[in-house]
# Entry
Amino acid sequence: MPLSRRTQWLRRHFDFRPRKSLGQNFLRDGHVATHLAQAAAQFAPQRVIEIGPGLGALTVPLAESNWDLVAFESDRRLCEVLHWLFSDCEQVEIRQGDFLAADLTDLAGPDSVVVGNLPYYITTPILEKVFETHPGFAGLVITVQQEVAERIRAQPGTKQYGSLTIFCRYYAANIERLTTLPPQAFWPSPQVSSAALRLTLRAEPPDGIESETAFFAAVRGAFAHRRKTLRNSLKTATLLELSAEQVEALLTEAGIDGSRRGETLDFGEFVSLGNALHDIREGT
Ligand code: SAM
# Structure
């Protein structure tokens, strides 16, 4: 049965009404669902973790493969639908609850991928949770708001380029845009367009970073005041607590002109800035 007809049938049969507060916009386009499942299959995973399966738009094509599928859905009403839909599928496990509170340690690993049309109100916390789980995952196939996708894939010197870009670059070796989805691709239609991304995660942190803490502190400091020069942004970033002299020493050691704006620094320059900050904090 085509996805849009199945969704409509499930809605009526279970008398389901979507909740905006849970980011419930259900995919109607079956071609997109298949495309995303195929994009996940390219990681050749043993296990797929789905975030927010909803009415099963992605779960159905994902369940056609042999991998174990664990789907986290917070809405109890949808879990009833999903248990009914997948009652014959031994390899599909529906877990009711908040994905952000779930313990992923037994599910993560190089053979696991994360898939989801994300509930947009918690996109960043979801990325933080997935990126920071140990051991890591092989990758993610996700749908996010178009504007967030642009920030994730932004180039230096653009207004979209910021902490989120660098955060994702730190954890992902490769980020591809799979497709763009207009609001009508979902029911009910959200206000904004969406984009599907595939992120291939790194097995190890990027080369050359001496301290993850100092690296992210330097990134936050550089973007703390986007309208200021890098020098002034670093000086006034309260989280860094650096004197004017320390900021000059930092910029000299990193070899970066302090009259530039933070948003012009490429990833390698952030690595240099983070390492210089680490040295200053260590007193070396
Ligand atoms: N995957 C379905 C689709 O593509 O049609 C639904 C996507 S919808 C954008 C987001 C889904 O995430 C909804 O089913 C919603 O109930 C669920 N959700 C929202 N917050 C959640 C959370 N904290 N943990 C797990 N699921 C959540």
Residues 212-282 form a domain with the Helicase, Ruva Protein; domain 3 fold (CATH 1.10.8.100). The longest strand covers residues 172-181. Residues 267-282 form the longest helix (16 residues).
